[in-house]
Amino acid sequence: MNEDQDKLIAELVEKGLAGDMEPINEIEDRVLRSKAKAALVKAKRSAKPQETEDHVKKVSDKSSIDDKSLSENLNENIGEMVNEKFPGSLVNENTETHIQLAPDHWFEIAGWLKSEPSLSFDSLQCQTGIDIGENTLEARYNLHSMKHNHCTEIRISVSINKPVIPSVEQIWRIADWFERETYDMLGIEFSDHRDLRRILLPDDWEGWPLRKDYQVQETYHGIEVPKMKEGWE
Amino acid sequence: MGVVHGQEMVLNIGPQHPATHGVLRLQVKTDGEVVSEITPYLGYLHRCFEKHCENVTYEQVIPYTDRCDYLASMTNNFGYVVAVEALMDIKVNDRVEHIRVIMAELQRIASHLLGLGAFGLDVGAFTPFLHMLRDRERILDLFEMTCGARLLYNYMWVGGLSHDLPVGFVESTYNFLDYFEPKIDEFVNLLVHNKIFVERTADIGRMPQEVAVSYGVTGPNLRASGVKWDLRKNDPYSIYKSFEFDVPVGEGGKGSVGDCWDRFYVRVLEMKESIKILRQALASLPKEGDIHQSIPKKIRPPKGTIYKRTESPRGDLGYYIESDGTNIPYRLKMRSPAFTALSVIDEIAAGWLLSDVLAILGSLDIVLGEIDR
User: Fold this and answer.
1) A193 band by pLDDT with thresholds 50, 70 and 90
2) What's the pLDDT tens digit per position in B55-81?
3) Which residue among A12, B79, B177, B194 is buried most deeply as judged by most CB within 10 Å?
4) Domain residues for B218?
5) What ipTM was assigned to the predicted interfaces of this complex?
6) Does pLDDT of A68 surpass 50?
């Protein structure tokens, strides 16, 4: 009995999906009718996501302006390509929001990111550093392509005891000043940078202000340095 | 600075010099009148913006953003609140969006007026500066009418605005636009086609496209080099999608593409586009809508990172915010357009005469508050 019912419902759902609702409405047994309708809704719902996915793909083909699904795919694609070209450089397989790289081959990877025609990241939007705790500093690069209008974020973490990352100032010229600022604020050293000096603070300032364990120096050339207030009065 | 050869001389421009638009020191190596190398020294105005942000709550950051680019505080507020709202996934109502766009575009005109006037002043034209300040004053009056402050507004809040538009604002703005639109042609006659001005700026300090992109130069400076790139069009935020306007680019009207004159003229054209946007926004401004509707009781963004860019009068203004789930930003970085614009000075100004260096610096329209933060 049950098997027969299932078969009947499957047939009705097929007809319903094709647009023919009459056989379902004609069923006299109310329970069977509602079961058939529920099955139909389920079937429609499971069919929908495929449609929308197709739709999104079509849209992203047309215009690539900041399409979220495209940029997510982009990160995955870049991750795979990096893994192929520079094995061992990709630290974290999860590339949903950003790409985590090891510092060793960063200069080569950066050059490749800029010159690879399908990526052509010609503009370094933002470069910054961050003290993420547990004795780790992280440099972050927000890249953008003027040609394809897509963005990605690269992260490279180093130990606080030996914070050295290859410089990319010869690839994107703006990295020159960005890296100087990151060096100034967090003490991340960029190897092969041609002019690595402090940029905002005086040359003889002590300490790296944006590290979480930073202590303000007591005096500077005999002038007392005002202490930062704890909280708000 | 390296070795100085027989005929060379090292000259310091600034830190206190009217042409540096603030406190900036340019160490210039000259050979006679020709400049061979420029080394900018920054940091005279460093006020630890990013360090302060790690110690105050998200709401309290907004007044600090005012003081970064003090000539375009509205757009600084705008960029910050857009970033935090994206992080918290807040949508604001249509009236708030419209008011924000109106303020941002008024601010763009005000900022360009001062930038253009000061540029004229740098190359020796005194009168246009007074004309432009006179008209900028009328915009500041509109801001004062709205929120009580003339320069540092703290007007845009996360999820809303501090004040609604006062009675009579829309009429006053229409009056201003009607008054100001013909004035632009007056400026054009005063400066743009002025022979002395053209001689000082046309063909001077050309910035090629590749150099501009590689140095991260954005905004009017990039567009003057012929790149049609405007975040309001290319990566629309807020409601810019619904307005019609053009993106003017440099065409080398008096000299070649990307020279000082182009950088000047692109800004003049941009003011016209801003007027277009303003008229559309004023016409479609919804009458209903609570400006405090979406303001959250507590601003505690979820754990995460965001990098959000908006188009300030000087270019791509980016905020990089790392949130650890508390009410205080874990790390906040401001990517300022003037910082990147100044970094290109050695590349484009070396090889020109000393007096041209000041014209090039003026044409980049930098604000030191934003560079040093």
Assistant:
1) confident
2) 888 988 999 998 888 888 999 999 999
3) B79
4) 8-372
5) 0.85
6) no
Whether residue B287 contacts residue B98, with contact meaning beta carbons closer than 8 Å, is answered with no
Contact A210 B51 (CB under 8 A): yes
CA A178, B50, B21, B4 dihedral sign is negative
Radius of gyration of chain A from its Cα atoms, rounded to whole angstroms: 29
Distance CA B155, CA B146 (A): 9
| pLDDT digits 0-9 by tens, B162-204 | 888 888 899 999 999 999 988 888 888 888 888 888 888 888 8
H/E stretch holding B78 = helix B73-88
State the CATH architecture for A68-218: 2-Layer Sandwich (3.30)
Question: Residue A139's closest CA among A110, A103, A107?
Answer: A103
At A17 the pLDDT is: 73
Contact A125 B309 (CB under 8 A): yes
Does residue B1 lie in a domain region?
A: no
Locate CATH 3.30.460.80 in chain A.
Answer: 68-218
Question: How many domains is chain B built from?
Answer: 1
The DSSP letter of residue B63 is: H
- Residue B3 resides in a domain: no
Amino acid letter, residue A41 = V
Chain B residues touching chain A at CB-CB below 8 Å: 42-43, 46, 48, 50-51, 54-56, 211, 213-216, 227, 229, 234-235, 305, 307, 309, 316, 318, 320, 322, 330-331, 333, 335, 339-340, 343-344, 347, 372-373
Q: For the residues B21-35, what does the mean pLDDT come to? A: 85
pLDDT at position B4 is: 59
